[in-house]
């Protein structure tokens, strides 16, 4: 009995050490689509998110997903890292509330949170897509919150639709005269060529002019000059809008433009490379993946030109089973990709140094609506071929 007791005590003492050892195991490579453990060994719960770099630390904000529902039961989570691979859980950055009727009441839909830092005010500004509890996807609002520290806590400020009573900057007398002729009663049958043409000309823009334009899938972008922009799906997800933010990054200025009118795009992710703006989006197929789309422009205001799918490799026609959420630009912190022997042989333009400098990381989510907490992440390097972005699948990269 004494021997058995001694062995039991040894096992009990050793167990915490074993768990601690497991918790301290470092992630040494990106493995797209696989479980991504945080410092405690738990799968990172920050979906549809984006990354903010502040000082030498990266902060990853995303939707906290539950076991059986995509409604917001917790809020926005925050993780921190110095190497982009090993993340510590900073907790809930923005919490939903149990106050009945509140905009972010528990059970609302709170998606695609993004955070940017305002150097003038010293505030961290969070924007997100918000649907009010019990209203499905009818509200189509954006929400705004603010904090003094990157990890929060964030204070919810307000939610609303976008740019009420304002036309896009490209709408002059000619476009407004066309708008005047558009009558919704004449386009009750959707998805016809005439209906799509009317949407492109502003049918839904006119419908929502007074109440404000719809705002769903979204991202934020801060340009080189410090001006910030809110990019979002609008007009029943048929047209993307790019709206300029005020100097404090907390409101729209009223200046906005439309991208790919009637093109049916969502999930925008944007970056700028050598003076050209690039945006990757997806089509609208619910939770199911589809082929990525890519646009470029010489100015944030356009004109925007569409290009072929930038993805390469298995399931490239389905964006590797995921959907774009953010593109992380890495400045002054070059990462390297290790190419396999097979890749070296397969790629005629492969650089023989076996290392490729990474300036941008494409972030996407593999959604699992039946088990949302198990949704996975796809992080892949963006490379350039003939001056255009290419996203090549890799089982593992460093």
Description:
Strands 17-23-22-21-18 form a five-stranded mixed β-sheet, with no helix packed on it. A four-stranded antiparallel β-sheet has the order 1-2-3-4, with no helix packed on it. It has a four-stranded antiparallel β-sheet with strand order 5-6-7-8, with no helix packed on it. It contains five helices and 23 strands. A hairpin with a 6-residue loop joins strand 11 (239-245) and strand 12 (252-259). With 398 residues, the chain is mainly beta. The protein has a domain at 28-160: Glycosyl hydrolase domain, family 43 (Tachylectin-2, Chain A), CATH 2.115.10.20.
Please state the average pLDDT score: 90
What is the radius of gyration? 23 Å
The 3D shape can be described as: globular
In terms of DSSP E residues, the strand content is 35-45%
Give the CATH H-level superfamily of the domain at 28-160: Glycosyl hydrolase domain, family 43
Instruction: Using the 3D structure, state the CATH architecture of the domain at 28-160.
Output: 5 Propeller
Total beta strand runs: 23
Return residue spans where pLDDT drops below 50 for at least 5 consecutive residues.
6-23, 339-356
CATH class of the domain at 28-160: Mainly Beta
CATH topology of the domain at 28-160: Tachylectin-2, Chain A
User: In terms of structural class, how would the helical and strand content be classed?
Assistant: mainly beta
Distance between the termini: 52 Å
Strand order of the largest sheet: 17-23-22-21-18
Biggest pleated-sheet summary: 5 strands, mixed
């Amino acid at each position: 009995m004494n021997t058995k007791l001694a062995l039991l005590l040894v096992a009990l003492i050793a167990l915490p050490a074993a768990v601690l050892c497991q918790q301290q195991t470092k992630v040494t490579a990106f493995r797209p689509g696989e479980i991504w453990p945080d410092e405690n060994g738990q799968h990172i719960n920050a979906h549809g998110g984006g990354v903010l770099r502040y000082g030498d630390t990266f902060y990853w904000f995303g939707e906290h997903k539950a076991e059986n529902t995509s409604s917001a039961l917790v809020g926005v989570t925050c993780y921190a890292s110095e190497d982009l691979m090993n993340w510590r859980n900073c907790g809930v950055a923005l919490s939903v509330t149990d106050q009945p009727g509140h905009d972010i009441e528990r059970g609302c839909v709170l998606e695609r949170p993004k955070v940017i830092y305002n150097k003038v005010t010293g505030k961290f500004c969070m924007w997100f897509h918000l649907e009010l509890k019990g209203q499905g996807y009818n509200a189509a609002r954006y929400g705004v919150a603010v904090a003094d520290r990157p990890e929060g806590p964030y204070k919810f400020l307000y939610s609303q639709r976008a740019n009420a009573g304002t036309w896009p900057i490209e709408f002059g007398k000619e476009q407004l005269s066309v708008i005047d002729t558009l009558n919704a009663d004449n386009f009750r049958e959707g998805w016809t060529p005439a209906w799509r043409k009317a949407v492109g000309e502003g049918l839904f823009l006119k419908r929502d002019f007074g109440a404000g334009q719809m705002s769903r899938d979204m991202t934020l972008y801060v340009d080189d000059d410090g001006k910030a922009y809110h990019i979002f799906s609008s007009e029943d997800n048929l047209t993307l809008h790019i709206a300029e933010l005020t100097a404090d990054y907390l409101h729209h200025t009223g200046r906005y433009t439309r991208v790919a009118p009637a093109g049916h795009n969502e999930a925008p992710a944007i970056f700028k490379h050598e003076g050209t703006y690039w945006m990757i989006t997806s089509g609208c197929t619910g939770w199911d993946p589809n082929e990525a789309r890519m646009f470029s422009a010489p100015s944030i205001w356009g004109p925007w030109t569409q290009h072929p799918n930038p993805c390469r490799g298995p399931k490239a026609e389905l964006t590797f089973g995921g959907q774009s959420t953010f593109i992380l630009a890495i400045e002054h912190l070059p990462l390297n990709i290790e190419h396999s022997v097979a890749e070296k042989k397969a790629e005629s333009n492969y650089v023989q140094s076996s290392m490729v400098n990474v300036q941008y990381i494409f972030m996407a989510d593999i959604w699992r609506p039946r088990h949302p907490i198990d949704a996975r992440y796809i992080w892949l390097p963006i490379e350039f071929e003939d001056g255009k972005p290419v996203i090549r699948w890799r089982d593992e990269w460093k």
